[in-house]
Design goal:
Pfam family, one: HGD-D
Distance between the termini: 56 Å
CATH topology of the largest domain: Rossmann fold
Largest sheet: 4 strands, parallel
Organism: Desulfuribacillus stibiiarsenatis
Shape: globular
InterPro entries: Dehydratase_Activator_Redct, FldB/FldC_alpha/beta
Helix content: 40-55%
CATH architecture of the largest domain: 3-Layer(aba) Sandwich
Protein name: CoA protein activase
Number of domains: 3
Order of helices and strands: EHEHHEHEHHHHEHHEHHHEHEHH
Strand content: 5-15%
CATH class of the largest domain: Alpha Beta
Radius of gyration: 21 Å
Length: 373
Amino acid sequence: MKVTFPHMGSFYVGMKALFEALDIEVIVPPPITKKTMNLGNVHGPESACLPLKINLGNFLESIEKGADTVVMAGGHGPCRFGYYAQVHREILKDLGYDINVIVIEQPRTGRQEFFRSIKANFPNKSWYAILSAVFHGWQKIKMLDELEEIILRNRAFEVESGAHSKFWKKAVRLIDQTNDKELMKKLFGDLKQEVEDIPKKWNREVLHIAIVGEIYLLLEPSANHNVEEKLGNLGVSITRTEYVSDYISENVFKTKNTGGHELFASRYLKNKIGGHGYHTVANAVKYARKGYDGIIQIMPFTCTPEIVSMSILNEISEKEDIPILSLIFDEHSGEAGVDTRIEAFVDLIRRKQRIADANPNLTTRENLSLEGV
């Protein structure tokens, strides 16, 4: 068995660790390129969202390298993610590939159901091996998420341009290469200290923007044209509202309390709408009330939950008095267009603040109208 899986940010490090701990050969998908996009676009359904097409490209490139088994998460609810595995299975079959597609369904009752699902798909592995492997992969995912959260928050303050990006590549490589439990613990402590020690200019005036939206587009830089890094270089301290570790804690291990989402979203949205749409609304309200300077929504074209959320974000922008930008991505999205929009949004917020300082009684809407936007 040679296993592959979708490429989504640094998530591959945890997945690779899990399967290698089970003595299963892993074919990590190559970094996402134009070729990946083209493969998914040519062979995927025209109306499918960007993540489905990129994942298909991942699988085809991994199959070229010898993969014979695809492992994917399942899902339920209005989001079409729950259908991805079956669509991929049928496409690969039509292309003549005899590939085993394993679907690890999102548990409805708790972690025991998740572990039983893994055991059912890998029956020759002991319970001890499965539990140990999952914990091993989980530790790497948490470490990388914590480091990335620090990077996104602090990149705007760095003295040497690119210092945090350079550190991130190093951190991913070292955590990927380290498997001993004690060495991992020491490595994480050293890396955390190293990222905190990167020289910063703390008195620099920066903007604080929260990024909300569909989780795949949030986590995969090649799919969103490196929006987070570019914002950091524009002097924006970023709070990303979705991480893989959060998703696993909430939906797999059932250990994360998400009651706060209802508290913030209830005024604007009464029911769950699938995907991360409910989170998008809740987090937009949450960070508006925390005093953030702006919100950016990132979403795939045709994503139903995020389309619903986007319509509500207009109301949130007005009532919570905060600028909100929605960025929609598909295989035709150009980097130059994305750059222009985020640069204009950052400039708009800075001008808004200058006008607000001179006219403290203006609301955001009145403020923006003065700018002719």
